[in-house]
Amino acid sequence: MISNDVIKFIKFSIVGITNTIVSLVSFYLLFEFLGVYYIFASTIGYFMGLVNSYFWNLRWTFKHRHSTQILIKFIIVNILALGFKLINISIFIEIFNILELYSEVLAMIIAIVINFGGNRYWTFKER
After folding, report:
1. Short-list 42, 17, 45, CA closest to 103
2. What pTM value is reported for the model?
3. How many whole angstroms separate alpha carbon 120 and alpha carbon 12?
4. Torsion angle, alpha carbons of 115, 118, 123, 125, to 10
5. Cβ count within 10 A of residue 122
6. SS3 (DSSP) at 40
7. Residues whose CB falls within 8 Å of the CB of residue 68, separated by 6 or more in sequence, listed in order
């Protein structure tokens, strides 16, 4: 039998795939076509997926009702994940000379782990 945490992680990952697509497409369009600085493009792309993430993780993944407390926790977790993402994308680009789009993907992986842990065990903690 699959554990509850595994099922939640699978659902979280499915939601994350859609968020990743939204974030990457936003980043690519902003950076490549509009010439937006990569840090700003990454931040805007991240927030583009944030609304989708909140709705689906609240209702489907963790099965909670909206509350101000949950929303505040969700925002805090996402700001922390974004902070780590921006630090890592800067390191990948500035120190390791990895292309911006590849750096964005690598930094997203780190943010996903932080995001899941924070949301699973704090924001949407089992009642």
Report:
1. 42
2. 0.77
3. 9
4. 120
5. 12
6. helix
7. none
Instruction: Report the Cα 44 to chain-centroid distance in Å.
Output: 12
Residues 6+ apart with CB under 8 A from 7: none
In 3-state terms, the chain is what percent helix, strand and coil (to 5)?
85, 0, 15
The answer to whether 15 touches 21, Cβ cutoff 8 Å, is: no
Residue 6 has pLDDT above 70, yes or no: yes
The 10s digit of each residue's pLDDT in 41-79 is: 999 998 888 888 998 988 899 888 889 999 999 999 999
- N-terminal to C-terminal alpha carbon distance within the chain: 22
At 63, list the tokens: 């099965």
The maximal CA–CA distance of the chain, rounded, in angstroms, is 49
**8 A C-beta contact, residue 42 and residue 89:** yes
Can you read off the two tokens belonging to residue 29?
Answer: 């369009």
